[in-house]
Design a protein that fits this description.
It is built from nine helices and no strands. The chain is mainly α and 194 residues long. Helix 1 packs antiparallel against helix 2, helix 7 packs antiparallel against helix 8 and helix 8 runs antiparallel to helix 9. It is elongated and about 95 Å long.
Length: 194
C-alpha cells in the first residue's frame, strides 16, 4: 500500500471526478430539458390566450436551444399557427433545426418534406427539386409524399407532362398506401382530359 499510495489516491480522485462530472452533466441536461418543456407549455398557453407575439418569441427561442424534440415541435407550431410571415425567416428556422439537431433519418426526412410543402407555394421549380431530391432518390417512407407533392406542384403550374412523370413514378412504387396509387391515377386521368 505504501509503495502505491499515490497511484491509489490518484485513481480514486480521478474516479470521483469522472462520476461527479457525469452526474453534473446529466443533471444539466435534465434541467435544460425541463426548462425547454416549460417554455413550450408557456408558448401554448400564450397562443390559447391570443398572445401570438409572446408565443412566437418563446417558440423561436426554443428552436435555438437545439433540443431535437422541442425545437421541431416549436417549428411545426409556428407553421401551423402562421406565427411568422417572413418566408426567409421560416426557411432559416427550418435550416437551423435540420443542421443543429440529431434526428433519426426518417424524422429528418419528415422535416425536409415539411420544408418542401412550405416552399411549394413560394419557390421556383429548381429550388423545390433540390429540396425534394434527397427524398426522391432514396427509399425513404417520404418518397411517395415528395413525388405526389411534385406532381401536384407541376399540375398547379399547368406543366402537365412533368406532373404526369411524377405520378407515373408513384404507380411504379411498391408497398405504399393505396391512396397514393389512387391519387396518382386520378391526376393522370385529369391530365388526359386537359
Amino acid at each position: 500500500y505504501t509503495e502505491n499510495k499515490i497511484l491509489i489516491i490518484s485513481t480514486v480522485i480521478i474516479f470521483i471526478i469522472v462520476i461527479g462530472s457525469y452526474s453534473f452533466y446529466s443533471y444539466s441536461l435534465e434541467k435544460k430539458k425541463n426548462y425547454v418543456s416549460e417554455n413550450y407549455i408557456s408558448a401554448r398557453i400564450y397562443l390559447e390566450n391570443g398572445s401570438k407575439k409572446e408565443a412566437r418569441n418563446i417558440l423561436k427561442a426554443i428552436i435555438l436551444e437545439n433540443d431535437s424534440t422541442y425545437s421541431t415541435l416549436s417549428l411545426f407550431l409556428i407553421l401551423n399557427e402562421n406565427l411568422i410571415d417572413d418566408r426567409d425567416e421560416v426557411i432559416n428556422l427550418f435550416d437551423h433545426v435540420i443542421k443543429n439537431n440529431k434526428f433519426e433519418k426518417e424524422i429528418e426526412n419528415l422535416i425536409i418534406f415539411k420544408k418542401a410543402i412550405f416552399l411549394s407555394d413560394y419557390t421556383e421549380e429548381a429550388e423545390l427539386l433540390k429540396i425534394t431530391n434527397e427524398l426522391i432518390n432514396t427509399e425513404s417512407i417520404w418518397r411517395a409524399h415528395a413525388l405526389l407533392l411534385l406532381g401536384d406542384y407541376f399540375v398547379s403550374k399547368k406543366e402537365f407532362l412533368k406532373g404526369k412523370d411524377y405520378y407515373n413514378e408513384i404507380l411504379l412504387m411498391k408497398n405504399i398506401s393505396e391512396d397514393f396509387y389512387e391519387h396518382a391515377r386520378q391526376q393522370i386521368m385529369l391530365i388526359a382530359n386537359e
